[in-house]
Amino acid sequence: MKTNLKSLLIALSAFALCGTAIARPVHHEQPEMNQAITQLEEARHARHPIEHLERAKNDLQDAKHNKGGERVEAIRHVNEAIEAARHHNHKAMEGHIDAAIRDVREGKHAARR
Length: 113
Known about the structure:
Layout: H1 2-23, H2 31-45, H3 49-62, H4 70-86, H5 90-112
């Protein structure tokens, strides 16, 4: 009886460890997406926001997978933010930055599913 109980405990422990490994998200890091968010946030207050917006765009283009379509939308918003910055329309630029950040975060969330 003790042997069966010991075997059962070992089997349950091994199963619990395997279950933990399976539950980990494959794309939990997403460094390009994180860097894009950082660049977008810095662009909001930067003296030369286009530099940060271009970096964010490059990070998004380098990111793996489309993240449910949000990455493409984020790139579109970054392009619009760049145009707004070129025309010195700070309010429109900020609106596009906010939309891009929202898209990136939604994409990161979609990638974890």
